[in-house]
Structures are given as C-alpha cells and as structure tokens.
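Pasting as-is:
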Amino acid sequence: MREAEATRMKVVVLLGWPAWSSLSPVVHEAGFRAVGLNWRYLPLDIPPGCLSVARAVLGSPSVAGANVTMPHKEDVLALVDALTPRAKAARAVNTIIKKDGLLTGDNTDGCGLLQALAAKGATPTGRKVVFFGAGGAARGCAAGLVQAGACEIVVLNRSLDRAAALVNSMSAGGAGKLRASVHRWFHEDEDARLLADVMEGAGVVVNATPVTRKPGASPIPVETLGRLRLSRDCVFCDMVYRPAVTGFLQQGQALGLPVVSGLEVLLYQAVPAFEAWTGRCAPVGVMQAALLSAAARDGVPGGDQLGFAQVSDGW
C-alpha cells in the first residue's frame, strides 16, 4: 500500500500573488522526499479578484491540497466546502485539505506562531498582544494567540473597519473575557504618544503587514522606540521573511528583546499542513534544514542571525 502511494504522483499548490517567490516549495518537497512520497509542491500566481480560476485546479484528481497566501486568505473562504474550528475563528484560510472531493479550509498560521514563540520560551497566555495589520495573516495569528489565552488584543491598521472586524471576530470567541481595541495607523496624523500608550505592557508584538519587506523598514518610527513601555520579556514577531531580520525585528533586538522571524513561522505553520495532506508525521528537522539552506542560497539576508531552535523529527 505504501509503495503504491509513494509512486503515485500528487500535487499540492500554493495560491498567491505573487506565489513564485515563496520558500514553501523547498520546505514541503524536502518533507515529501524524506517520507518517500512522489509529490510536488507548485506555486500558482493568481491575481487579486481571480481566485475562481483555482476551482478547476483544486478539482484535479492529482491535487491533494493547497496553501493560500496573500492576498487570498480571506477570499478563499468562498472556495471551500467546510472550515476547521481554527479557520472559523480566524475567518481566514492558509491551508486547504482535499478529501473525497471535498475541500476543507484550515488555518495553521496561529499554531505556527505559537510554536515559534514556544521555541523561544514564550507564551501569549495572560499577555497583551499588539498587531500591526488586520489582513488574513493577522487574523490567523490573532485567533491562535487568543485561543492560547491572550487576555488583550490591540490592532493598529490603516482601515479601522478591517481592524474592528478582526477584533470583533476574536471577541466573539473570547467568552467576553478578551479586552480589545483598534487604532488607525500609517497615517499622517499618527501620534508617537498614542503608540506608546497602546503598546504599554505588551507581551507580544506582531507585524502582519508587508511594510517590512523594504530593508530597514518598520511600522514603529525610530523616534518612538525610546518611549515604548513594554513587558521586559516582550517578543517581537514578524510574518515577513524577506529579509529574515526585518527593520522591525532589528528594533526588537535593539531593545534587548527576543524576536521571531517569518522564517520560523513559515516552518512551524508548514508542519500541521504537511501532516494533514499526507497523513504522515512531518520530518521537521529535514524541513528546517531545507528552509535555512534555501534562505541562504536565495540571498534572504539575516537568516544566520536568528538563533533558530534546532529541531529533530520528534521536535
């Protein structure tokens, strides 16, 4: 049975815009080879508003599932037949599992971030969490952190409506115990004192915007850093992994805080997706080695500065 499965070609696709620049193919194909599966992982560039073209792709018998990245994590809700509890909580999907012709949407961003935090000895339980951004990546991570016991969530975003929609979703699952607030950010009227006030006492700060793709860039103005009153063990996390150490993470390091890179989240969110598609235990050590090697080869600056926790196939 296993031999027949290993020789049968299956495909997992990545739906995004752009998708071609992702390091996910390297991570998953290394995992497929390690467990003896003749599977491929293929990125598909799908422009915004054109997600319907993915229906035919996902309907192919050779397709076992998919990952979903920006900007489709929310729109893809209309494409699936069912949602896992964590995808329902996030109202966003980053993983599609295909079984008996039915498509189930899942979200592994939150558990990926939680595992990355745990690898640094950190937990969101009882902590205040601050998010920059309110898109699909923020939704997945926020749902995971709230379900893990975060007591307060603050969202800063260009659009107050999107930020409010995110915290309302999180509050609905928080049994009335979650404190939540939203604030407009990235506008000309932004006030450094406002940022210092809303971030006071934060235990986890997450950048879930593309702002930090520009080297040295951060949603936090440099002149504001000295005003921040964070928890002494606060963790700065960035969902962006090009560069590996973003300007935002450099700020965290300058404050003497632990940081979590998008490379780390990429690895840990890949594990539950891999296991859901294949039914096999993920060879995490192999996947990590492939990711770090690809990041170095592709010129993702700063990967050697992360202090990645060394993992084995048994975690």
